[in-house]
Give the backbone structure.
Amino acid sequence: MTTGESPKRPGAVTFSVVLMYIGGIAQIILGILTIFLRYTPEAQAGGIALPITLLGAGMILFGLLVIGLASGVARGSEGARRGATAVMLLGLVLAVLDLIIAADGDWSAVISQFLATVAVVVPLWIGRGRRYFETR
């Protein structure tokens, strides 16, 4: 390896980065679709157009945050790795809170968020992924 050249990124870290990009892009698309909901007659009549718009904007910003973290993880940033871990764990906590508050017994969001969290976070902290960040 020559001076200035970085070590090859392990496949597990690449997989995590790809999942984060997909999740971020999906979040942005859902945010845009949510903003379009403000034009429904129900939202207009109920006076909830502004909260719907703000929710959509928040979803878009969150998607951009995830994409930014994915970019940092791809570069080997320790802060981005910690940030990605925090965001994924926060998503899991929110899914559990939603399950408790909704009291509908629908575990699908918790299970899918748990699987996404494991798929993204575990490769960043064990094995070759851990060593990739230690060399930075």
